[in-house]
Design a protein that fits this description.
It is built from 9 helices and no strands. The chain is mostly helical and 170 residues long. Helix 4 (44-58) packs parallel to helix 7. The longest helix is centred in the last third of the chain and has 24 residues, at 129-152. The protein starts with a helix and ends in an 18-residue tail after the last helix.
């Protein structure tokens, strides 16, 4: 890559800062979706699993970092987070979680109509219409945030080092 091409690639704008009104509208949508999910009966851990699975598919490092912390705070386990990309190959996820994850994947890759039909059929067995709608809205919203962060190249930074007295004792 030439110096001029490299310089252009490093000068990405943060579209959320450059155009704050659409970003704030997206944040408001996210808040409405979070409330809708809770009202529909999707717990916070499941919402965060959807956020993480979609972010894994899209390769959004910023959202993966953000939502891993949120999932842990919501009570998710590191074991389940570690195997989330292979959720179909474990017994760690409930039928409801599997249905929501399949819907999230179908929402993220909508060109595969067979996968959509399969996901919907499975979801109908274990989720209410409100839960199906809520899971899809969570996936739609995190897909939008993924695109904002990917196109802006939002950085993932290391957490600050703990100060004196906050480290691990030997």
């Amino acid at each position: 890559m030439s110096d001029s091409t490299q310089g252009r690639a490093d000068r990405r704008i943060y579209i959320d800062k450059q155009s704050p009104k659409p970003y704030h509208a997206l944040v408001q949508t996210s808040e409405a979706v979070r409330t809708n999910a809770a009202d529909a009966g999707l717990d916070r851990r499941l919402v965060e699993l959807i956020n993480l699975r979609v972010s894994q598919i899209n390769g959004c490092a910023y959202c993966l970092s953000l939502h891993t912390g949120a999932a842990l705070r919501a009570g998710e386990t590191t074991q389940r987070l570690g195997v989330l990309p292979a959720w179909r190959d474990t017994e760690l996820f409930t039928a409801r979680e599997r249905a929501a994850l399949a819907l999230a994947e179908a929402t993220t890759s909508p060109a595969d109509s067979a996968a959509q039909d399969t996901a919907y059929d499975a979801a109908r067995q274990v989720l209410s219409d409100d839960e199906i709608s809520a899971a899809i809205w969570v996936a739609v919203t995190i897909n939008a945030f993924n695109r904002v962060s990917i196109m802006s190249r939002h950085p993932v930074r290391r957490p600050p080092e703990p100060g004196p007295g906050h480290g691990v004792s030997i």
